[in-house]
């Protein structure tokens, strides 16, 4: 004896109601995050935009390469006072292929670098960019670089400490041109995003110090004898994924080499135009 049609009708109706309730809850959560972001921007006297379809296309690595430029939603644009001067910052929800994937936090540096690098936790997926090669462990993360000769001198003890200070919820941190960026979970509160901005500012300062020659590499080239500071260039022993990190690195090393597809970034380091002065001409006083 088959199941009566009325039972199937009731099941379909219940499923429809549950789906509508879940959709409404998701919309409320999204609108709540939007309100929080807008309120945070107002408190900082920063700019807020509902969306910007162009901004993500200025970058090409990290999550931008993985899922395409997409659209910046709930975009906050501001300037942060630091000891080196004001820095332009962006915070936005990243929509790719019609779905929100993460929150992107970006901080502008005062100088540009000739290559790009990504610092990934062992729990993060492997980069799918054939132009990035695994360089070495950097603290608790692994470095994938576009130009080893250009990037290796920038990996200083200060940079390692700054990267390790960023929590495990941030699986991907990267730098390209004059920017330092990272991805954060979609439910990140404004307080957490503010903390991430402060941490990225320290990463940016560490890179600027290395570019000026104020730091020394945390690990020498493979053909030179190592100097005594191994704790800065090896994965942290207390990291819960240290064993999986080794197999993670081995799995990447086993990938085929894409030498022909590697991008060359050996070009002069251009001066970075201070976008902060253009976007915030009246903001000459420090804001907290």
Describe the structure.
With 288 residues, the chain is of the alpha+beta class. It is 33% helix and 22% strand. The chain is built from seven helices and nine strands. It has one domain (32-266). A hairpin with a 2-residue loop joins β6 (133-138) and β7 (141-145). The chain is globular. The protein has a nine-stranded antiparallel β-sheet, sandwiched between helices.
| SSE string, helices as H and strands as E | HEHEEEEEEHHEEHHH
Stretches where pLDDT is under 50 for at least 5 consecutive residues are 23-30, 219-246, 255-273, 284-288
Residue share in β-strands: 15-25%
What share of residues is helical? Answer: 25-40%
Task: Detail the topology: elements first, then pairings.
Blueprint (H helix, E strand, L loop, with lengths): L4 H40 L2 E6 L10 H5 L3 E10 L6 E10 L2 E10 L7 E5 L12 E6 L2 E5 L2 H4 L5 H8 L7 E5 L2 E6 L5 H22 L30 H12 L21 H5 L9
Antiparallel strand pairs: 1-2, 2-3, 3-4, 4-9, 5-7, 5-8, 6-7, 8-9
Key descriptive features of the protein:
disordered C terminus; 33% helix; nine-stranded antiparallel beta sheet; alpha+beta; 288 residues
Summarize the structure.
The chain has seven helices and nine strands; from the N terminus they run αβαββββββααββααα. The chain is an alpha+beta fold and 288 residues long. It has one domain.
């Amino acid at each position: 004896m088959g199941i009566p049609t009325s039972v199937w009708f009731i099941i379909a109706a219940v499923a429809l109601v549950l789906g509508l309730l879940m959709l409404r809850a998701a919309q409320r959560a999204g609108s709540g995050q939007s309100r929080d972001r807008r309120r945070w921007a107002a408190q900082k006297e920063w700019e807020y935009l509902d969306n910007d379809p162009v901004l993500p296309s200025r970058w090409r690595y990290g999550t931008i390469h993985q899922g395409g430029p997409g659209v910046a939603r709930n975009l906050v644009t501001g300037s942060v006072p630091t000891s080196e001067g004001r820095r332009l910052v962006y915070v936005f929800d990243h929509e790719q292929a019609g779905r929100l994937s993460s929150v992107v936090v970006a901080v502008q540096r005062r100088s540009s670098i000739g290559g790009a690098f990504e610092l990934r936790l062992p729990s993060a997926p492997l980069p799918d960019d054939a132009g990035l090669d695994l360089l070495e462990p950097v603290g608790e993360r692994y470095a994938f670089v576009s130009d080893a000769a250009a990037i290796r001198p920038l990996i200083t003890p200060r940079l390692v400490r700054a990267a390790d200070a960023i929590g495990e919820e941030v699986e991907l941190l990267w730098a390209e041109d004059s920017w330092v960026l990272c991805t954060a979970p979609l439910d990140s509160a404004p307080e957490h995003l503010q903390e991430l901005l402060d941490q990225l500012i320290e990463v940016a300062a560490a890179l600027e110090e290395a570019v000026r020659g104020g730091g020394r590499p945390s690990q020498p080239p493979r053909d030179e004898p190592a100097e005594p500071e191994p704790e800065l260039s090896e994965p942290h022993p207390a990291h819960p994924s240290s064993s999986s990190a080794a197999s993670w690195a081995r799995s990447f090393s086993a990938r085929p080499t894409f030498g022909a597809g590697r991008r060359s970034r050996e070009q002069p380091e251009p001066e970075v135009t201070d976008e902060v002065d253009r976007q915030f001409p009246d903001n000459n006083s420090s804001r907290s």
